[in-house]
Design goal:
mainly alpha; elongated
């Protein structure tokens, strides 16, 4: 996968991560008591964050000493 493809994928993941953050906050602020759904969304958000971190590390060039 080249850097352009990684960057496009990263952008999509960041959008989904941001959208989940908005949805979670909306559910919490709206006093929705569907805690199972909130926990699932939080788990997905954490998975996305891990994927974003991994892809960002792939964009950092290897520096051979």
């Amino acid at each position: 996968m080249d850097q352009t493809e990684i960057q496009v994928w990263l952008d999509k993941l960041r959008v989904e991560h941001r959208d989940l953050d908005i949805a979670i906050n909306h559910l919490i602020e709206g006093n929705h008591h569907d805690w199972l759904r909130i926990q699932r969304l939080k788990r997905r958000k954490l998975q996305l964050k891990d994927m974003i971190t991994k892809l960002e590390s792939e964009l950092i060039p290897d520096l051979d000493a």
